[in-house]
Amino acid sequence: MMMRFLKLFPSIMFLLLVYFSFALANSSSSLRQLCLSDENRALLQFRQLFLFDLNASRWCYRKYAKMVSWKEGTDCCRWDGIACDAITGHVIGLDLSCSLLHGTIYSHNCSLCHLSHLQSLNLAFNDFNNSRIPPCFGSFTSLIHLNLSYSNFSGEIPPQLSHLSKLVSLDISSFFLTPRCGRFFHNFSNDYNLHSASSLERLIHNFTQLRHLNLDEVSVNSIIPKSLMNLSALNYLSLWDCGLQNKIPADIFHLPNLQHLDLTFNPKLIGKLPEFFNDSSPLRLVSLAATNFYGEIPNAIAQLKSLEYLDLGSANFSGCIPESLGNNSKLSVLFLDNNHFGGEPPSSLWRIETLTGISLSLNTFEGQIPNNFSTHGVLSYLELFDNSFTGQFPHSIDNLAQLQYLDLSHNKLSGPLPSQVFGLSNLTHLDIGNNFLNGTIPSWPLTLPSLKELWLDGNQLTGSINQLHTSSKLQSISSSNNNLRGPIPTSIFNLRDLIALDLSSNNLSGIIKLDSFSKLRHLQYIFLSNNNLCGPIPTSIFNLRDLIELDLSSNNLSGIIKLDSYSKHRQLRYISLSNNNLCGPIPTSIFSLRELVQLDLSSNNLSGTMKLDSFSKLRSLNYLNLSHNSLTGFQLIPTSNMWPSLVFLDLNSNKLQGSLGSLPIPSETIMYYSVANNQLTGEISPCFCNKSNLEFLDLSNNNLKGAIPSCLSNSSILSVLNLQHNALDGAIPRMCSQANGISLETLDLSYNQLQGQLPRSLAHCKFLQLLNLGNNMLVDTFPTWLATLPKLQVLVLRHNRLHGSIGKPRSEVAFAKLNIIDISDNNFTGTLPSDYFKSWHSMTANDRNRSNWKFLTMSSRRFYSYTVTLIDKGLEMELVKILNTFKVVDLSNNNFQGEIPKSIGQLKALCALNFSNNHLTGSIPTELAKLKNLESLDLARNNLSGIIPPELASLTFLEVLDLSHNHLEGSIPRSRQFDTFPNTSYLGNPGLCGFPLSKPCGETEVTPQPSPKLDQTQNLESIIYDFDWKVVSIGYGCGMAVGVIMGNYIYNWKQEAIARFFRVRLGRHSKRLSTRRRGRK
Asked: Does the record bear DNA damage in its keywords (predicted)?
């Protein structure tokens, strides 16, 4: 045996030697670094450019600093994000996506340029600080995949990238479509541009193998190049927000391998869906949202058998949804919102069992919402708001077990809500607001286990609010603008997750317990305005540290405002406690709210003085309304930069005393400044002239004196100047001189002591709508030169020293838009201006359709309420709100003579006509019977003769008639309307007889005496009626919204409108809760 072993020993030793030789070789090979040294150095050099920043990759679900493993002396092929060729050792793959990189890549000295064998490069989701794409990337001729998306690159895409002929995937996008139905999210943006279609064409013309192309938000700003149709291998194409224009090539829908087509947010891109699709088309996603695509959805849409996602929202599509769309059996998401679709959605649509999300909102769909949702087990998102759907709330929605989002708001749904719903256990958002739902609120909306947002606002719901389940997850509740009554349920104050509570504009009543809000630690928005809540403001509100907005206005809250805990509120920005019965001084603790933006304490009983040094701490304040209180003044002398952000300041209707200069000096940002209806004295400071943003200046109803600063005429933005009811004297400044004053829309200088002539520069006020210079001492002739103002609607020159004849108009459209003209109480002579009657075209339109009525408002500032004082029937009327249908002509108390022209009958829309106290002769023209809207007719104290035309009995809206002190004769016409006039309407006409006079017709006539001319110094009210009313109404026929003013009704309306306007202007929420989504166009 031994001998046999010895013979074999050499052979065994040889085999062992060979074995160990191979083992040693393999061992040395494994110890050798695979990474090439120059590429290793290049990568380490690249690493030195960056810091690690979590925000740089904030959109990544999984992110980490891959470069942490990049250490000198180690094999780069073993580093995170690096892939090497196993044979050559070259780096062929670099994936640094979501690597927290923040820094700058220098495009002409980039160390990555040494990685010439790269096949895949992914730098997505980092922050390269507006770096340019290195042109050397175009030298990576082996590159197959290139992804530079969401990395904050900028500048032009280097044309060298077109050399990458092997590219299969190119992504340099910076937007993405989220998988949920909430639509679009803007994220980290690149700022690429290609400038033109030719640039895009040069970039892609070599990409014959390209399958994936994503250029979202690359600025192409041109048409889609036809060469794109040559990319036959393309299966993914996304050109989101590229500025694409003009018509899209129809062949783009027929690319043989295209599965994903997204052209969203290219509003200048025009096209139609093709009438034909290949049955074999692989299209799975089509998004044309926010483009200018138009036309109808073709029946051929059913040929897209693979279609899963169709978004045509916010485009210009129209017509009906084709029945064939229901044949797309794989359809999962359908967005047709914000178009011009109409009719009833086809029943086949609701039979697509794969639908998970559908939006038909912002169209004109009608009919009932189908009640056959039983088969839609996967539907999670249903949005149908802003249509004309009718009927009741569909009961079958109860079957949608997976439903999470339901919005049926702004439709015409009616009837009560179902009493019970059991199947909506996953519902998080329910919006059925702004319909016509009635009845009480059932318990189920308040007890859904997953519900976070509940909107029931703008319906006709009644009854009380049910108690809520204490385990509710509700974060937002809105049931505003209903008819709910009773107290606020105590269970609401146990909703620990509640963020927003809106119960405004109901009939809720009762006292809110002082500790009610103590548990609502996350509450940010409280809206309880326009109810009947009473008692003091709950002190627990002031312990809510997250509170942002508080609106308790228009209730019956009383007591002192106790804000002892307000120093804790670092976020509180909006406070409205207006229209209550709060009293006492303004609490000093409110001035610790350094973030306060808007404060409205108007229409209360607040008193005392305001400490300016405290107000000066509110550096962010831009809206302050303290009007309609009993504040008496300010402490300390105001400085010029006290409120650097203030835009709106309203102190009107207080008891402010002292000089105007003692009030806060408006900042440069001021737009609206009102201290009207106080007891201020002194002169108007020229400081108002330097406010470049000042649009509204109201100093009316004070005791100001001196001249109007001439510099006010230099403002090019001033829109409203109201200085009425003061003691101002001197001449009127040259308003609208040359290019200045181009914005002036209303000028009211009435009830002052102004002298001189009307400034001819007023003829340049092209936007002037209201001019009131009444009750001054102006000496001039009739301003025919104002006749060309294209927007002038109200002209009041009453009670001045104007003289001469009116003359004839220079054109057929003189004062064409005029609705009210009052030149009474002057010394005009000659005949009545019959030719002007023919040119007042606005008074000839007879429109009694109330749907066309609107208040006289400034074109761009629709909140401002005009106040115009007129005399009618001897009574002073203050028209606080004027409808466009209210037409008045008052030429009374002058020296006009001659006959009443027949052309007066052309003013068919006239509501009030006053020719009294002149020297008119002749008969009353029968043409007055054509003024079918006439409510007041005053021809008293003239020398009119003849009979009262019986045709006047047809004026069925006539409420006030005065024909007294003329030379009329004959019988008084009888009609239902005429029989209501008292005998004072006919006094001083001895020749008249019949009802209501005691003189029957047929008796001997008494020789008529000349009618007395009324002395203009006499008191009109004492001669006609002994009324002490300031304001009277002359009916609804012309829609004049005036009446006997009681309390603060008129000003309350005015202030609410002003506040509402400026809150919008200052960026306040339209719905006030950011969670609510409305149209996207």
From this structure: no
CA distance 942 to 921: 7
Tokens of 803: 């003289």
φ/ψ (deg, to 5) at 754: -70, 145
For residue 112, pLDDT over 60 is answered with yes
Of 547, 608, 555, 595, the residue nearest 577 (C-alpha): 555
What is the chain's percent helix, strand, coil content, to nearest 5? 20, 25, 55
Whether 194 has a pLDDT exceeding 60, the answer reads: no
Which amino acid is it at 834? S
Q: Of 139, 133, 211, 202, give the one whose Cα is nearest residue 170.
A: 211
CATH superfamily, domain at 722-731+747-1015+1034-1043+1050-1059:
Ribonuclease Inhibitor (3.80.10.10)
Asked whether 266 and 241 are in contact (CB, 8 A), the reply is yes
Handedness of CA 821, 824, 828, 831 (dihedral sign): positive
The CATH classification number of 37-193 equals 3.80.10.10
What DSSP string runs through 165-179?
Answer: TT-SEEE---EEE-S
Q: What is the pLDDT of residue 108?
A: 78
74-92 burial, b at 16+ Cβ within 10 Å, e below that, comes to eebbebebbebeeeebbbb
Break the chain into its structural domains and give their ranges.
37-193, 722-731+747-1015+1034-1043+1050-1059
| pTM (global) more than 0.70 | yes
pLDDT, tens digit, 9 for 90 and up, residues 704-722: 999 999 888 888 889 999 9
- Please tell me if the domain spanning 37-193 has the same topology as the one spanning 722-731+747-1015+1034-1043+1050-1059: yes
Q: How confident is the model at residue 781 (pLDDT cuts 50, 70, 90)?
A: very high
In the Cβ-directed half-sphere of 627, how many Cα atoms lie within 13 Å?
24
